[in-house]
Protein 1
Amino acid sequence: MTAAAPFRLGTSWKMTKTLGEAGAYADALRSAVEAGSVPPEVRLFVLPAATALAAVRDRLAGTGVALGAQNAHPGPEGAVTGEVSMSMVRDAGASIVEIGHAERRTLLGETDDMVADKVVAAVSAGLTPLVCVGETTAERARGGTEDVLARQVRSALSRLGSSRPDELLVAYEPHWAIGSGGRAATPDEVADGLATVRQALAEEMAGTPSAVLYGGSVHPGNVADLVTGLDVDGLFVGRAAWTASGLLDLARRCAEALGERRTPDLVSAIVRKDPR
Ligand code: PEP
C-alpha cells in the first residue's frame, strides 16, 4: 500500500436489517460524515442485503461511503428465479460486489468455478469485485493454507482474459476466524496467508489497482493489533460493524493505529534518504 492509499474498512450486513434498520444505519453514517467524524484516511464501504441497496444508496449519496452487494448471479438477465444480476445490483447503487464469501462457499456450494464466472460478470458490469478467499480449519490443520489461498486467488481471476477491473479487492478471511463460531486470529497467525494472497495477486494482476483486506472476528479489542501488525490495506468486518456506531468506532481505532504504523516507515525512509 502506498502512503497515499486510503485504508479500507467495510462491513457486510449479511442477512440482517429491515429497510427501516438499514436506513437508520445509513442516516447515522451520513451524519457522522457531515460532522467530520469519519477519519479521512479510512475509506468506508457497506454491503447491505439486496433489498436495501437502493434505499441505502439514496441516503449515502455524496458521502464517499461506497456501497456494494453481497452477491449477484453471473448470468445476464433472464429466467433464473430468485437471483439478481450484476447489472441489477449496479442499477440499485452497488459499485462493489462481494464474491466467494466463506458462508456462500460452505453453506451454498459456491465453487471456485462459480467465483471465477462471477468475477468476469462483475467486471463486465463495471463493478469492483471483492473476492473472499480463506482456508477451512481442516485445510489449515493439514498445512494446506498457502496452496488453498494461491489456488483460490488464481482461479478467481482465471477467466478474465485481457479484461481488467478498475480496481480489485481481495479479502483474506480464514473460515475458522469468521462469525459467531470463529476464533479471532492474531496477526502472526494470518501474516503468511496475507503474504500469499498478495503475491498471487501481484503475479496475476500486475498493474491493476488492488487492495488486500483481512476479515474474521475483527472487533474493537483487536483492531489496533491487526492494523499495526499486518501488511494489509484494509479490514472487512461482520458482527462488530452491524451498528453504525460499531463501524465508526472501528474507523477511529484504525486511524489511530495507522498513525502508529507509519512511524517506523517514516523513520526508515528518513534513514534511507540520508545515508551520509
Ligand atoms: C465475515 O463473515 O466476513 C466476517 C468478517 O464476519 P465477522 O467479523 O463477524 O467474523
Note: The first strand starts at residue 7 and ends at 12.
Protein 2
Amino acid sequence: MTQHSSAPATGTAPAVRTDASGAPAGWWRDAVIYQVYPRSFADGNGDGMGDLAGVRARLPYLADLGVDAVWLSPFYASPQADAGYDVADYRAIDPMFGDLHDADALIRDAHELGLRIIVDLVPNHSSDQHEWFQRALREGPGSPLRDRYHFRPGRGPKGEEPPNDWESIFGGPAWTRTENPDGTPGEWYLHLFAPEQPDFNWENEAVRDEFRSVLRFWLDMGVDGFRIDVAHGLVKAAGLPDMGRAGQLKLLGNQVLPFFDQDGVHEIYRSWRRILDEYPGERIGVAEAWTPSPERTALYLRADELHQAFNFHYLNTAWNAEALREVIDQSLDSMRPVGAPTTWVLSNHDVVRHRTRLGGGLARARAASLLMLALPGSAYVYQGEELGLPEVADLPDEVRQDPSFFKDNGQDGLRDGCRVPIPWTRAGSSHGFGSGGSWLPQPGQWAELSVEEQTGDPTSTLELYRSALAVRREHPALGAGESVQWLEDFPAGVLAFRRRAADGSGRDLICTANTTDRPVELSAAPGRALLASGEYEGGAIPADTTVWWEV
Ligand code: GLC
C-alpha cells in the first residue's frame, strides 16, 4: 500500500505538555466539545423551554457519552429576539433559564464529573434592551453613551437614508432609524444582525473595559472557556465605508469586508488572552469567525490570541472524497504554522443538521461522524447528532422563532429545524424533554430516536458515538495531531488515511470512509476492524460507511 503524507513525519512522539502544577496540559487540543442549546436540551421546570436545571440533571448523560467539555449557547438575560444572542445583561441569567445559583451549581457538578464548561460570549452586539443602549436612546444625539454603539445621522436631505449601504445578515439594511426623545426622526444605529441587536463600537474604551470585566466575571465563576460569537465582526473599517454593491450576503466568508475580519480584531483577542492566562487550568477562547480562508482563520489562533476556531470550511464541504481530502489538508496545513489544533464540526444551531444536509440519510451522517472523530485535533458535537436526529423541515410557520433567513452561507432558510428539543424517552410529554410540552413541536419519529430507545442497542447511533468517543479517548493514534498520512491504494471514492500512534506503541489507526453509494471491495483488510459506522462484517465496505482499523 503506497502512502502519501500530508506533512513530513517527525518520527518522535509529541512530549506530554504539563501546566504549572505538573498536570498534563493542552486539554483543548483534542477535546470533544458538546454543544448544548439550552432552550432545547432539557426542561427542568416543565414550562416547555429548556433551562440550566435541566442541563444540570443531564450532565451524567454527557459524562457517560464521553465528551470532554460542554459549550452552552447563551443563557443570559435577554428578550430572546435572536434566541439569546441578544444579551441585555452579560452578568445575569435569563429567568427562563434559571439564575446564577443554577449556573454555579451546573459548573460545579460538571467539574465533579470531569466535564469542562465553555460559555458563549456575544461581544459584537448587545440587545436593544441593554441598559447602555436604552440610555443612549433616551439621552439623544450628542450623548457620550451613543459612542458605545454606532449611531450616525442619516444621508439624504432629511437624513432619511441609512448612513451607508451595509446589509444585515438577517436581511434588509444594517441600519435602523431612531426616534429622538422629542418624537422627531433621529439618528440611525448599526446592527449587522437583527434590529434588536445593535453593534457595539469597539473603538470605545468603555466597551473594551466592560468585556474584560465580563470575562473575569465568568472566569471567577469557574468557566473553562468562551465561545466567542461573531469574533470576526467587532472592528469595523474606519469611516464605515460603503460596500458599493448589494447582495453582500454572498460575500460572507469569501472576502474581508469593512465589517468582517478586519485586522483590528486581533489586538482585542491578545488582550483577552492575557486575562485567560491569568487563571489556572488553561481557560480557552474559541472563535466563531467567518473568514475567507483557513489561513485567515489561523490568524485568530496565533500563540498570543485564541485557542481554537470553528472549521466552517469543513462543515460546508460536501460528502465527496476529493473535496474532503482537500479541505482536511488545507485545514491542517493552515493551522500548523500557528501551532493551533484543527477543529472539526458537522452541525450546530445555525445550520441544517448534517443527517439531512449531507443528503444521504442516517448512514451517511454516521459515516461522516466517524470520519470527523478520526481526524487530528478537536471535534464539536451538536446536541442530538449523537441520536442521528434529522432536520425538522416541516415546522409550521407559526411556531418558528428564528429571525434570520441565512440563505447564502450554507445556511438554507430558517434555523428552527435544527433547534427542536431533543428526545430522551419513547413516550411522555415531549419525549422526556420536560413535563410541560416543548416550545417547538417534535416529529413522531422522535420516539425511536430517543436516548431511551437507543441506549444499549449496539446498532444505534448513540452507541456508535459512545464507542467512538471511548476508543478515541483510549487510542494512542487518535486525538491531537498535526497531520494524516493519506493512503492511495483504495478504490475511487474511498477516503483513507493512517494516523500514527503518538506513544511509540506502533498501534497505528487507519480510517477508511466509503463516500460512494455502492459497497466497495477492498483487496485486503487494512487491519483489524475496530469500529464501523455501518454493517461491516468483513468483505466489502457498505455504501456511506466509515471503518476504523487498528494496524
Ligand atoms: C452567531 C450565532 C447565531 C446568531 C448570530 C448573531 O452566528 O451562532 O446563532 O444569530 O451569531 O449573534
Note: The longest helix spans residues 205-221.
